[in-house]
Amino acid sequence: MAFWASVLIVLMTTVLVVLFRLGAFRQRRFNEPPLDKGLIPWLGHAMDMSRNASSFLKKMQERHGEIFTVHIAGSYITFVTDPFSFDVILKESKSRLDFSKFASELVFKIFEFQMPKNHRGMVINNSSKHLMSIGLVGLTQAMMDSLQILMLQPDADKRLGPQEWKQEGLFQYCYNTVFRAGYLALFGNLPTNGKAGHAQDLLQSQKVFEEFRKFDILFPRMFHSVILPKEKQEIKRLRYFFWDILSARQMLEKDNVSGWISSIQRELADLGVPELGQSQYNLILLWASQGNTGVVSFWALLFLLKNPEALKAVREEAEGVLRKMGKEMRPGGAPIIVEYSMLQQTPVLDSVMEETLRLRVAPLLTRAVKQDVILKMDNGKEYALRQGDRVCMFPYLFLQMDPEIYPDPTTFKYNRFLNPDGSRKTTFYKQGRRLKSHMLPWGGGPSICPGRFFALNEMKMFVFLMVTQYDIELVDQDVKIPPINVKRFGIGAMQPTEDVPFRYRIRF
Fold first, then answer.
1. Annotated binding residue at 415?
2. Secondary structure of residue 506 in the 3-state scheme
3. Looking at the chain, which terminus has fewer C-beta neighbours within 10 angstroms, N or C?
């Protein structure tokens, strides 16, 4: 009898310890935000969050107000919903609220890469040199060269004759073209060995895109840690595919590898990162640089095709820039070459892209709480945050979709970010007060996306070419804009649940 009593005590003690570690006994302390743990130990609200983060967070805001803490898959995350308080979090010292700790954990979970200690400095230095200023000019030209290979070379023998309409899915076309062009611009070309043409580049980039789409479809499940056993095997296969094709050995055999990739490769090697680690990091760079640009380009073109007035305004602006630069299209003339300087003369297109980012880019901005912190909200209220927790903002819902800031927020308005005189509009208000940050699709503070300028140039260049080089139209002009895949909330650009047929042909 005594034996079984001892066994029972051990079992009960074990259960209590497990429940404690799962957070089942956590209670709200004095001055902490409202706490909502959910009903399921460890999981908490994980399922609701993974199904539709926007809907879940809206419900939590209505229940708890401007700040609340929720239990999600073993973690306690405090969400701040007041946009005036976002800057306080974004500018807080990394010794108190740190992005890199959360990013390192996420990167290891998805890419199996262990970040070196001085990783952030390496990224900032290389990005400043190669993705901004003079380096950005050269990389933008490389993107243009790659777009010409993908968009014009297959039709090179037909340009002098009558042009026939081609029909494809708009999402597939945009994602495929922008991804492959960016891949070639960054990771270089296969050696031609004296042969003309880019047949090998076309074949390999298509294969890379097809495998990347498989990885990308599984990404939300990796992000939310809800992977099925059979999916684990596929993820493993895809990782090994990319680790091979993006290996340092493969990069050495290529021509025209961008300075950004080459420089990071050298620094990783100097830090003693093995070749596998370098390959893993190249996959991170591929996903970070090309995982969203084709998706946003799709939405931008779809919004233009659904709004003839907007398409007309963008096309007229682009054609005006071409005339100004002496590069307008003529029958039988040379294909359009979009230069970096031309992309600095397109306020209407800039407004279109900003409106598209507002409507369709929805990241979660997360910081790890490194020590116990008192967070002072904009209204003066103070809340205690616990060391080991996370604090998070969701600007898509609480800023970009706020009807007080953006009237009729779900409607695409191509000139929303233009002043009456045609200049860029950057001033927006809530409760009669000007917002310091009116949009945060690229993140904010020290962790703001370092590649945002190149990414924006990629998308603008593609849209510029599509409206000037081609006639484009929807197969069914009355087709409805497809819903977004709500399972991708928090990751980046929202993808459609279905494609939209369109047709295109070279204009001259």
1. no
2. strand
3. N
Identify the CA nearest to 393 among candidates 435, 451, 444: 444
Q: Which CATH number fits domain 2-115+364-393: 3.30.43.20, 3.20.20.450, 3.40.50.740, 3.40.50.10860?
A: 3.30.43.20
- Give me the residue spans of the domains in the chain: 2-115+364-393, 119-363+396-506
Closest CA to 469 of 294, 308, 309, 334: 334
Q: Which fold has domain 119-363+396-506?
A: Cytochrome p450 (1.10.630)
Spatial CA neighbour of 318 closest among 348, 352, 354, 341: 348
* pTM of the model as a whole: 0.92
Q: Encode burial over 204-226: b for 16+ CB neighbours within 10 A, e otherwise.
A: bbeebbeebeebbebbbbbbbee
User: Given a cut of 60, is residue 159 above it in pLDDT?
Assistant: no
170-182 burial, b at 16+ Cβ within 10 Å, e below that, comes to: bbebbbbbbbbbb
pLDDT tens digits along 18-29: 444 545 679 999
Q: Which of 135, 128, 114, 132 lies closest to 271, judged by CA?
A: 114
Residue 221 known to bind ligand? no
Return the SS3 of 212.
helix
Whether the predicted pLDDT of 103 surpasses 60: yes
Task: Quote the tokens at residue 97.
Answer: 């609220």
Q: Is 158 annotated as a binding residue?
A: no
Cα-atom radius of gyration of the chain, to the nearest Å? Answer: 25
Q: Give 404: exposed, middle or buried? Use CB within 10 Å, 0-12, 13-18, 19+.
A: exposed
449 is in an annotated binding site: yes
